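One-letter codes give the sequence; the integers encode the fold. A sample entry reads:
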Amino acid sequence: MMDHFDVVVIGSGSAGNTVANTCNDEGLSVAVVDHDPFGGTCALRGCTPKKVLVGASTIGEHHRSLSEKGVFASPAPVDWPGLVAFKREFTDTVTEARLEEYKQLGIRSFQGTVRFTSSSTMKVGYTSLSSTHFVIASGAMPRPLSFPGADHLVTNEDFLELDELPPRIVFVGGGYISFEFAHVAARAGADVVILHRSEQPLKQFDPVLVQHFVEASRDAGINVVVNAPVTGVDWDGDEYTVHTSGDQRRYAADLVVHGAGRVPQLDSLDLAAGNVERSPRGVAVTNHLQSVSNEAVYAAGDAVGGVSPPLQPVAIREGQIVADNILNGNRSTIDYDAVPSILFGIPQVASVGHTEESAKKQGLDVVVREHDLSSWLSSRLVGNAHAWSRVIEERANGRLLGAHIMAPQAGDMINVMTLAIKKGFHASDLQEAIRRRPALFAELIREIKDMPDHAVLRLVREVRDGDW
């Protein structure tokens, strides 16, 4: 039996759900297939549950810091079982709600592993699907590791479901996952180690800012070890032993967590049978997010081959681009310039645009404005001793090229800098606007989001000149 659709979407996360809903709204017949529980990584296994854990841990850390200043009688310890139960309030209903939504909208849902059987057909279980368009939005999975004992490691998904927090935890790899969860675990009382294979962890961030964040992590009790590639993990029935080739040390642990990166989840799809070319980093696509080898296939989210940052807002935007190109022909492309990245540590780390190194590689003559923000009111109010910023400007004209911030509210601050960089602001434009009319600056940001460049510059001048 063969079921035919206008669009078959593989994956029910941010990118896939956007495509499915948009195409369905325009009258196309849509099916969504997922071998994981419906809802996607962000809602079930990533952004949302992580932010619940980090948010509660941040409150606890602020309470501890202010207790040292006599504001509170004593620190508030994190109750791990209570925290995980609170997290489940945000995740347990997602799958049922997503499936019910699809049912009400008339979108067909299929649970199970799906694979291409030809360039225009797929099979899930015993059901064959044909479609005019296929959208690969299958998300990512932990990067395969080859050292002995790698099967002892648990994933970030497993960590989020721990009913009890083990007393000693080793994170393998120095990326987002390790640092975000390590900050949570340390605040909950665990003895935490991060083992990173090279000199600099968090390579997607400004290296100077990373140094400051590593210092903040160590002050929080996290043992960050660099130049320590893991060569094996043993289990003796009582504890794990993690071996490294860098410092030749052995690290005892009750839990070892995979934090060594994620890769597109594509292996089970049999892309070759669908004539879908794969690059070393994912589905190979054109600038319309269309497969370079099969015009019926598009990709979005983590499945896109080395093009997009693995961020939920990017995945949603890619889903919008794909849906528009399916509905209206290939007329839309996505701009990856000035896409912010945020690490939800304690404090937060946020980055957008050029680093000093990347700007110089492009031959740009730059000035770096570097500031210790620990004396800022936003830091002092919560007892935060670690806050720093680096802003990259073009020397000739002061045009903003990049911003890198570590602070309690870095995620909010980076949105302002993202808009400023995207719209080509100069440092003087931003400084004057903020200094002269701080109470109205939030309104300015809302106004400029969708304005053409000439209107933005006019508005900024009005703010600067006191006419707004």
Observations:
- The first strand starts at residue 2 and ends at 10.
- The CA atoms of residues 38 and 95 lie 5 Å apart.
